[in-house]
Amino acid sequence: MERLRIGIFTEVYRPAVNGVVVxxxxxxxxxRAQGHDVICFAPKMRGAQPEExxxxxxxxxxxxxxxxxxxxxxxxxxxxxxxxADRNILHVHSPFFTGWLGLRCGKRYNVPVVYTYHTQxxxxxxxxxxxxxxxxxxxxxxxxxxxNLSDAVIVPTPAMRERLRDLxxxxxxxxxxxxxxxxxxxxxxxxQALRRRLGVPQGGRLLLFVSRLxxxxxxxxxxEALARAADPSLRLVIAGEGPEREALQVAxxxxxxxxxxxFLGSIDRSALPDLYAxxxxxxxxxxxxxxxxxxxxxxxxxxxxxxxxxxxxxDVLAGCGQLIPDSPVAWARAFREVPVQPDETAARRAKGVxxxxxxxxxxxxxxxxxxxxxxxxSTSLGV
Length: 383
Fold this sequence. Notes:
By secondary structure, this protein is of the alpha/beta class. It has helices spanning 19-33, 77-85, 97-109, 132-149, 158-167, 182-186, 192-197, 219-229, 245-255, 272-278, 293-300, 311-317, 328-336, 344-354, 359-380; strands at residues 5-9, 37-43, 54-57, 59-61, 69-71, 89-92, 113-116, 152-155, 173-175, 205-210, 234-239, 261-265, 281-284, 305-308, 322-324. The protein has two domains: 5-179 and 358-380, Glycogen Phosphorylase B (Rossmann fold, 3-Layer(aba) Sandwich); 182-354, Rossmann fold (3-Layer(aba) Sandwich), CATH 3.40.50.
């Protein structure tokens, strides 16, 4: 394939860290490794360092406890447009202001626009200070309209393709799972010293939750389940930061599980493989994911995964781990049944499922979509 000039438009980027940022970085690194020229268009944020391949757009903070920014595309507009004009593929990762800027650039320069659907926006209505039902409806309509204006839509799971069809999206929609660094996460080792540092007693069981701490991640369900399980051998370790941390710490006190819960805060991603591999179970009660990168990371490390019983997680786990109904009672039962010793056969099977989520596979499939859009555009122009 000829060397492509790709523009990535995102509403959130470094120094913020979440699943979208991790996904975008993996895609950009994979594309560059194959010789393509990739530029990211992202909001200017406090703490962001100048980078050769990142065009920062002036922005303001949004009135919510979230890592998103409101871009000001008319400020520095000339430089933004000049950079976008040089691209022959635009790939947008949000249907908000930065995404609309990408769409407008696509129309202006007659360049194909691909939209990756990362987030079920209607599940985030609690961040907006308006009536929740109206907000969810508006979010659904925004997703439908934006997707239908794109040339192609990428979703990470078959469940999300069906979700978009239900919303009325009629554009070409392709399933391309987000990949991870399989070698890195597969290198995780079960470390007794690490388990001791995390406060796991001899013969105890370590439950791990890795996520941004936000209401839509449903972490309080895990806390309530831990209290109901009433098993002093269980320890729940929570890795991540976010707007719900204070509320979760209050819940820990209220539920009487303070001695059995450890908040690690933000941790370096290099520490995650051993953390996953040292857990007796990775727990993920979120019901709002489009894929859930942490599920794949945990599988790659060979961890036993307990995940909320939703179709997205069924797609990702492919029969591995356990799917738990969205109920603290059901989760408590699952916690009590977590084995003390890891099942090596189950671990090998988990790693086998994770092997289908390589960054290379994601990049190759994405490049196929880019190539088909460029070919169709050339044909329509009579080139």
